[in-house]
Amino acid sequence: MAGQAGCLNVTGRQVATEMDIDIDDLKLTIEGEFNQAAFAGNVDGRTGLQDIEVWMTVDAEADEDTIEEWAEHVEARCPVSANIKNETSVELAIDRVRRRLTAVFVEAA
């Protein structure tokens, strides 16, 4: 959820710049629930977050209609939100690090 908050923050500020809106303050609150038992491996099931809710509190010199338009653009353009809302293929590849043991021999005096 921190990744989504960061992305919404960056996207919000980018869109504000493009729309010539001066944002004095932007706060994001994100909540979501997930299956803790599945995450812990105790039961089968989906571990991903479900029913994510986002609240954006914006302090800006703009009228209500402009802020609504800004919010619509932010929601539409945030890449992380797009990945969450739409099916996204993810492939995990693992490179194994092999460690070599080095022995140090010290001659006894």
The helix/strand series, from N terminus to C terminus, equals: HEHEHH
Provide the spatial order of strands within the biggest beta sheet. 1-2
The rough form would be described as elongated
Structural class: alpha+beta
- The low-confidence parts are none
Our Rg estimate from Cα atoms comes to 23 Å
* Helix percent band: 25-40%
Strand fraction equals 15-25%
Mean pLDDT rating: 90
Question: How does the major sheet shape up?
Answer: 2 strands, antiparallel
Q: Treating each run of at least 4 consecutive H or I residues as one helix, how many helices?
A: 4
Distance between the termini: 60 Å
Number of strands: 2
Structure description:
By secondary structure, this protein is α+β, with helices and mostly antiparallel strands. The protein contains 4 helices and 2 strands. It has helices spanning 2-18, 36-39, 64-77, 79-85; strands at 23-33, 50-60. The chain has a two-stranded antiparallel ribbon. Helix 1 (2-18) crosses helix 3. The longest helix is centred in the first third of the chain and has 17 residues, at 2-18. The protein is elongated, with a radius of gyration of 23 Å. The model has no long low-confidence stretch (mean pLDDT 90).
Secondary-structure map with pairings?
Layout: H1 2-18, E1 23-33, H2 36-39, E2 50-60, H3 64-77, H4 79-85
Antiparallel strand pairs: 1-2
Helix pairs in contact: 1-3
